[in-house]
Amino acid sequence: MTALAHAPARALSPRARVPRLLAGVGGGGLDEHERRYGPLPGPGRRPERLIDLVEAAGLTGRGGAGFPVGRKMRSVAAGSGRTVVVANGAEGEPASRKDRLLLTRLPHLVLDGITLAAQAVEAGQAYLCVHAAEETLLGRLDDAVEERRAAGLDPVPIQVTGIPGRYTSSEQSSIVQYLNGGPAKPTFSPPRPHERGVGGQPTLVHNVETLAHLALIARRGVSWFRAAGLPSAPGSMLVTVSGAVTRPGVYEIEMGTTAGEVIMLAGGPAEPLQALLTGGYFGTWLPVEAAWPAPMTHAGLKAAGGALGAGIVVALPAAACPLAETARVVRYLAEESAGQCGPCLFGLPALAGALASLAFAGDRDGNIDEITALAGLVERRGACRHPDGAAQLARSTLRAFPADVNWHQWRGACDGVRRPPLLPLPDDEERGWDWR
Amino acid sequence: MTHALRVNPIACTGHGMCAELLPELVELDRWGYPVLTSPTVPRPLLSHARRAAQACPTLALLIEEKSGRHR
Q1: Number of C-beta neighbours around residue A219 at 10 A
Q2: Residues from chain B contacting residue A382 (CB–CB below 8 Å)
Q3: How close A168 gets to chain B, by Cα (Å)?
Q4: pLDDT at position A16, please?
Q5: Which class would CATH give A322-418?
Q6: Chain B residues with beta carbon closer than 8 angstroms to that of A343
Q7: CATH for B2-66, among 3.30.70.20, 3.40.50.970, 3.40.1190.20, 3.10.290.10?
Q8: Residue B46, min C-alpha distance to chain A (Å)
Q9: Domain ranges for chain B
Q10: Among A23, A63, A56, A86, which residue's Cα sits nearest to residue A218?
Q11: For residue A56, how many other CB atoms are within 10 A of its CB?
């Protein structure tokens, strides 16, 4: 059965309301940016008015968790004294490219968002964090910050900072600990960053896409923002589509666009599909029939058994082996554990081992029960959600692919394991191994 | 006011004292790390729980007084 059979009867309508963020892609410096978007709105007499706007707009975080942005800003602003703003552009998900695209093509929109958020929560300092290995990007962002300084557009200083490239280093408590001079590893909470973060000050950590949306809301208002998307999940979002699609890449969609429409936007299936990975490596596999009509919102994908995460969609061809794909990713997640919490340190390698045994050698030692048991043993037992993510991915594999599991259980590896790996994993050379 | 047990998983290195001193609420997993069988501490066990928390070599067992939400 091909995925094309599941394409909606109605053709893709031209979505005049998107792109929004990506409409501004076109290069040029600060002058060009201001011509395109208009000047940065001043803070006025009540800078915290922006929080009301963002709350009314219903903007939620685009980094994966989907927390209401206004509420987060309010809890930071409620703290006494100066605060800190951290823009998280350290895209830890190997299958996500959206933050990199924003930072390389629309740096001033992100920087606008940082400045506006910093003024709204009365921050004395802001940081823009990207992977330390991205030297060219770091240099360009430094130049962009300098351009704004020269133009007097830096009411709150913004420091561009390279952080370690480990998967768990882009977790918000890891970034806070790193900016405080420690290793980029998650910390135990409380305190949460909004209570006590960088330098002990209340710290607002937002994904860079979230801040770019904020910069547009400040200019164009609440009803403009809500004109796209659903009343319960307004606005647009960036998605990274990869795997067996004809035109992989970063797309901007209205919230609530179905997963099937997203695949068609990316040129449609390049070969018959069996499943979509939704939400990245902390996400879930969904059989293509279940995924196709699911709306791309946190609630919509969750109801279908999926996850929105940071908008990652990977199309798995029918000829690929989902068990081998998952085993490789869980192995990678095990290697990327910060190694601080026992259940994650010991549990993830064991989980990866059980998945690999099932994928490549069959179920000789009751691997299926072992996978389920290990998923339960690691879940909610770490300081961060790293073990929970790996457990969720492993569980969804057993749930979404009962026929494959059955085959491997009795007959061992399938033909699919000989295909080249589909889900992207960083090469050892490009991978940062340091936590500092 | 209710009391809840919580483990700081970063501080915990699996000594297992908690399971020795508070077997009613703590079991050890296959690697020797504590699994809380019930996060809420019944009042009669509170003094045992306090003793277990104090005996933890890395002070990783926490007793939180809670009135509101808890993860």
Answers
A1: 15
A2: 9
A3: 14
A4: 64
A5: mainly alpha
A6: 9, 29, 31, 33
A7: 3.30.70.20
A8: 22
A9: 2-66
A10: A56
A11: 16
Structure-model confidence comparison of residues A8 and A360, the more confident one: A360
Q: Report pTM.
A: 0.94
CB A86 within 8 A of CB A129: yes
Q: What is the per-residue pLDDT across B8-47, written as a single tens digit (0 to 9) for each?
A: 999 999 999 999 999 999 999 999 999 999 889 999 999 9
B33 and A343: CB-CB below 8 Å? yes
Select from A187, A342, A383 the Cβ nearest to the Cβ of B33: A342
CA A286 to CA A306: how far, in whole Å?
A: 6
The shortest CB-CB distance from A340 to any of B10, B30, B33 is to: B10
Task: Please state, for a pLDDT cut of 90, what percent of chain A lies above it.
Answer: 88
Which 172-201 residues of chain A touch chain B by CB within 8 A? 187-188
**Which residues have C-beta within 8 Å of that of residue A218, sequence separation ≥ 6?**
A41, A50, A53, A112, A116
- Interface touch A377/B32, C-beta < 8 Å: no
pLDDT in tens, A231-289: 999 999 999 999 999 999 999 999 999 999 999 999 999 999 999 999 999 999 999 99
Q: How far is A141 from chain B (nearest CA, A)?
A: 35
Tell me: cis bond preceding A19? Omega within 30 of 0 counts. yes
Ordered by start, the domain boundaries in chain A are 22-226, 236-317, 322-418
Confidence bin at A63 (pLDDT 50/70/90): very high
Query: What distance in Å separates the CA atoms of residue B17 and residue B49, rounded to the nearest whole number?
Result: 11
CB of A217 within 8 Å of a chain B CB? The answer is no
CA atoms of B66 and A331, how far apart (whole Å): 38
Same topology, domains A22-226 and A322-418? Answer is no
- Asked if residue A15 has pLDDT above 80, the reply is no
Residues of A in contact with B14 (CB under 8 A): 342
Fold of A22-226: Rossmann fold (3.40.50)
**Topology of the domain covering A236-317:** Ubiquitin-like (UB roll) (3.10.20)
Tens of pLDDT, residue by residue over A363-392, are 877 899 999 999 999 999 999 999 999 999
For residue A42, the distance in angstroms to the closest alpha carbon of chain B comes to: 38
Say if the Cβ atoms of B31 and A343 lie within 8 Å.
yes
Interface probe with B: pick from A337, A377, A386, most Cβ of B within 10 Å: A377
